[in-house]
Queue: 3 jobs
Job 1
Amino acid sequence: MGFFERLGNLFRGFLGVFVGGLESKHPEAVYDAAIQGRQEEYQKLMKAVSGIVYLRNKIQKDLDEKTASLQEIQAQIPEAVKQGEEQIALQLIEQKNGLTAEIDHLQADLAQTAQDAERHKQDLMTFQGEIQKLRDERDRMLARNESAKVRLAIQEQLSGLSVEADLKALDHVRESIHKMEAQADVAREVGGASGESKIQKIRDAAKSTAAAAELEHYKMQLGLTSAEGGSKDLGATQPQAEKTI
């Protein structure tokens, strides 16, 4: 396909819109132009094949007529000879020979024309298949083109979205939660330490009381204090202790 023919097809595909870089933006017009070009070629081939088929039929008709004439002449020659019409018989023989040559020529032409007709009919079928394949390809590729457009649009939308602000906000929330948890831990630890110190004071006081009671017990055993709780003079009790010993 030449440049001007291609350009003309594209103009028809775009319905008069100027074609340049728009081919990629309007693939359906390019496919439609290509399909239309195939259809035009198909019509031309169809016309040519029709002419060949017409010629084949014409040759077949001429062949049938001349074959019938030959059969008549072949039947007339013996009759002319029987009647002694040698001159007529010679004319009939010449006609027979001429018809035989013409029939041979027609048979050769018919064979060639029939072969051409069959070959071009196969070309027509091939053209039909190519046109259908091109239509299928157009539908398939246009569907893929639309799908690609959708994916690109989605990708552009996604690329235009910034997640940095959301991530920063999440970091702030996490940090705030961690700080609140830390404050709760500190409050718990401080509160626990205060209660523990009180308990420790109670324990220390209890130990002091027990120690004092135990000291008094020892004093009573040693006679250093009376049951009423009065303390004796250490100097007065010393000899008694020694006497006891």
Job 2
Amino acid sequence: MKNYCVKDLMVPISEYATVYEHATLYESVLALEKSQEQFQQSRYAHRAILVLDKNKKVIGRLSQMDFLRALEPRDDNLDQIRKFKQFGFSRKAVALQQEEYLKNSPPILDVYSKAAKLKVTDLMQRPTEGEYVDEKTSIDMALHQLTTGSNLSLLVSRGADIVGVLRLADVFAAVFHAMKDSESKPIDGATR
């Protein structure tokens, strides 16, 4: 893997799903769908959208989890139930309380229209320092950065610009194939 560098495995911004900061959640879903249809069928589908400012600079990322969280009801009672975990309640106990409370909430289908109009800037995650990697970084170092930060992807930089996305799925595939190749090579004339 030492021969690979980040730019060899990254997905260029031009092939990634993007929307501008004024876009709605619905417009983001459409952009993700379009990007997945156009992306090479041999590679993994995109699971996030990059949010761009008016100068086409990446200012945030909207993941599938961010989409789903936008559909969750927002009110003080539910927020209080979610805080039960910090008082030692198990996940199961908190989940049961949430389910009981949500029985009286409108069904998810009724919330779609409201959620579709939300602005991406209200839902996106702004990248943190540990989510950037230079395009010339070795895959070994990028792998370390992915696992240490428990990241599903890293934004690939060239100087001050974001030029692509390094996805965990692509790094995993490269590592898996390298391992497979190394294990299938004969040792001293013997086959495995």
Job 3
Amino acid sequence: MRAGLFGGTFNPIHLGHLRAAEEICEALTLDRMVFIPANIPPHKEGHELAAPTVRERCVAAAISENPLFELSRVELDREGPSYSIDTIKHFVAEYSGAELWFIVGEDAFAEIGSWYQFKELFSLVNIAVMSRPPGIKAHILPSIMEEEFFAEEWGYIHSSGNAVRFVSVTPLDISSTAIREAIRAGRSIRYLVPETVREILEKEDHFGPGE
């Protein structure tokens, strides 16, 4: 089995997330893509987040019609910060023998040297970096990691044998930040998120003033 691990705050999930996941599934011939909403993301301010239960509901609603997509509560059920290394170790154990791909954006990848126990990630899992055309920036490894990697045309091979591969995805100009701002301002978010997600967010006002 080949599975993708797609973590994030999904605050909220939108069509850019879904389209990227679809294209990565196709590029890497994945059998499933696991969406993993974070409980307490260590790199983001928690006061700007909708409640974990709300973000979970939105992800579940957004992915319900795609048979390759599934939701995991592993980070929502874990107390404390949602460190990627803990999540990856969970799936390595749960999907023993599977080929796992950890999905990360190119901006986050450029800062991976600041992640908790980041060096261990590469010996545990393959990494797919979502690269938006032309993606030149993404093909430069953070200097702190260079000695452990061997360059390939499509990315890098880590000394453990795992890969770092750059996957070009369609650059949809949609952001969770802009969606939250639109909701607060009373503007439409139709066609930025799935209709099922729009109904949850607009009817229940999870990003009102002060949240």
